[in-house]
Amino acid sequence: MCLPASLILRPELIREYQFKIQNPKSKIQNRMTEDIQINNSSPELGKLQQAIICGAIALAAFGVHQALNWRETNTLPSPTVSQQRQFRLGVEEQQLARSAWRYFEKNRLPSGLVSSAANFPATTMWDVGSQFAGMTAARELGLLSPADFDTWMAQALKTLAELPLYRNELPNKAYNGATLIPVNYGQLEKPEEIGFSALDLARLVRWLDIIAARYPQHAAATKAVTDRWKINRLVKDGKLMGTHKEQGKETWNQEGRLGYEQYAAYGLKKLGVSAPKALDPKEQTTEAQIYGVAVPADKRDMHDSVAHNYVTSEPYILDGLESGFKALPAEWAGRVLQAQQRRYNATKQFTAWSEDNLDKAPWFVYNCIFVDGQPWKTIDSSGHDATASRGSSVKAAVGWHMLFRTLYTEKVYKGMRWLADPSQGVFAGYYEETQQPNRALTVNTNGIVLEALLYSHVGRPLEVWAHEPH
Amino acid sequence: VLIATNKEFTFMTETKVDIVAKHPIWRWRYDPLVEGKRDVRIDFLRGIAIVSMVVNHLESQSYFNAINRGQIYASAAEAFLFISGLVLGMVTVGRIKKSGFKDSMKKLLERSWKLYATSFILMSVLGLLTIVAPGWTRPAFEQAPGSWWQILLAAATFHLAPPVIDILQLYVLLLLVSPAIFWMLQRGLWAPVLAISWSLWSLQQAHPYALSFHPIDRDHPYFAFASWQILYVHGVLAGYYRTKLQQIWGRIPKLPLVIVLVAIVTGSIVAAHYDMQLGTWPAKVSDRAAWLTWTDRSRIGFIRLISLSGLFPLIYIIVDTFWQPLYKTLGKLLIPLGQNSLYVYTTHVPVTVIWFMIPGLVEGSPLVTTLAQAAAIAFFWLLVKKEVLFNIIPR
């Protein structure tokens, strides 16, 4: 039985043993046994006592684990905005930024606008806002040279200033980004004026304001874009208004529900549009109890109005990044995030829900934390159930993390930030049911991702950053 | 062998020596009776780790970087931590016997203080320099992390963890807790030491960074104490109980062991290729998110631990088995660097900063940057050989 062991003995050990046998009092022998001597110098505990100590340590660790769990679940997340801390972009963030910027490079149109979705040259004013956010971030993060930025921005602003308007009042809801003809959603060839959206225009206005302040050389051009607008059409009785035109007949309706409504009202204030009722987040707010969190929701739902009262992440994230929660309370954003964290705890599904494009039918969904009296519902643009397509959005994962930096946001961010094709752009997100990436590529996702990284880079809300002397 | 009579033992060892003499490969092995008291294999391994670290920090697209990065779930820093613990465990055993427990622990604390001072000086100098010359202290700082007094305060209280110089803080903390570890080991409490180490590691897995100085405001994955201590603690235990472990090691059949280790390392390399190089595996979002967590460097996720437990012993076996040719080819370069690793670490900080300031290196051509990295390593070797500022720079 000793032979196999002896075969694997190393030569130096063999020599050492030989030496030991010949010199029993040698130093080598002392070296071989010194551990044992040291260990015997203090009283040792028995195996049972050691096992009891190990059990106690494990129990204490479990207690700490439970306490940390409780703290993570029950502490309302608060944004890091008050700390004004600048964060370095790590290797992964830089890669994420490069991937997102790639979308812009690949989908830039001759007009200077960027396609809303990859290889589909349509755009909306909301998406132009996201385009400007992405371009600004790219310039500041070193992905776009100042000279190229200026050239591109001047071209895009000129295009906007010359766009044919809906009834010569305000920009149409959708355009063919290549021909600049007003069109209906998804129908690029047929000219059609379908109305205007106060929410879309508000996002554009927020970014025109940031650009004018940060880059004064473009201030006049941004003013030229909005000078033609009939802004009185955007408000009535303190509420935001939008139009919808079908078969030649226009309807002029209140537009926006809690979240988007305040985000838009705050943005349009920069144009001199006063909509105090839209701006007041408490005006139409109720609370929905979701996983024990009082999630703010709009009272006006499909039961008593013509619009859904979607509760999604996006307006909170955008308001946080751009104004530092001046339109919507940071505490409400924290609650919207906390409900999603608790859903993750319950389902183990990354939950960073927002509206998003899909890479398959029905092509666009609203992943709602709450809508029309129900929590965790996914509906398509027509309001039909789209549970099979539900999932989380990269833009929300990145946005929440850059704003709040909690252990949960970090987990979701790290779990989703790789959802990109470096040669195409950042993907929209992933589907819960199949756990497959949602490979839709849009300017909104990529613009918001860049915007969030810029926020992290400059360490303060972007409008504050833009307006401060530099 | 140990229970055999002297006569049997002499017969068996003679047989073994004959076998050894007949197989050239055995003559390549490390022989402590020839090499002397200091185990230069450890210096050699530390030399590999320090060269790997230098190559990694001198960021570029060099051929060295191509080999060094993203090939396996392991890094030089992890090797360093384990070897540091191992050497400390080995040395402290003897020191306790020679000078007593108190004096030995005092030495550890003095070392901790020395590293603290080094860390503080490096962080403060680079941080303050960033105020005067923003962008000149990459990759440690992109921009000044506050006003001068905030930088000094944060550097003193571990609230700064800039890349390249952040690992010193981890060493400071590890040396600070080392007296407690040795106190427990003196009483044979190795199991409770492991229990504490694994508990901390587990807490870091479940609640990343909750127990760190940077629970939320981290801007890069740094060396979190709760996870990284596991490598050091296991190294300390391995060093402290080295003789016993050598006996166990001697009894393990090497061929099956090598097969297992090679299987682990191969699996790690293949997985890393599809994960880190190609980004195509795991395909499902939930699987990939879990895999990223398990292989996370800052957390030392459990897949990473498995990978390390395959890689480290395998490298040790390779170095041990092929010692003579390795020593003849690389020994003169790696051993001096390994023996003065803290010195090389400290001197590489300004060199790294200069590297990032020179246009064309970070994004430069592979050939030029490979040559530049080789020149940098030669420079460190020369500094060591000439003992430049040995009385000032910690070693």
Short description:
By secondary structure, chain A is an alpha+beta fold. Chain A has helices at residues 2-7, 11-22, 27-40, 47-74, 91-106, 125-140, 146-161, 198-214, 219-227, 260-268, 276-279, 314-323, 330-347, 394-404, 407-416, 443-458, 462-467; strands at residues 122-123, 165-166, 170-171, 175-176, 183-184, 187-191, 235-236, 239-246, 249-254, 285-290, 293-298, 355-357, 364-371, 374-380, 391-393, 420-421, 425-426, 429-431, 437-438. Helices cover 72% and strands 0% of the residues of chain B.
Structural commentary:
The complex is a heterodimer of chains A (470) and B (395). Chain A contains 17 helices and 19 strands. With 470 residues, chain A is α+β, with helices and mostly antiparallel strands. In chain A, a hairpin with a 2-residue loop joins strand 13 (364-371) and strand 14. In chain A, helix 5 packs across helix 6 and helix 12 (314-323) crosses helix 14. Chain B is mainly α and 395 residues long. Chain B is built from 18 helices and no strands. In chain B, helix 6 (76-99) crosses helix 11 (225-240) and helix 10 runs antiparallel to helix 11. Chain B is globular and about 60 Å long. The two termini of chain B are 42 Å apart. At the A-B interface, helix 1, helix 2, helix 3, helix 4 and helix 15 of A face helix 1, helix 6, helix 10, helix 12 and helix 14 of B.
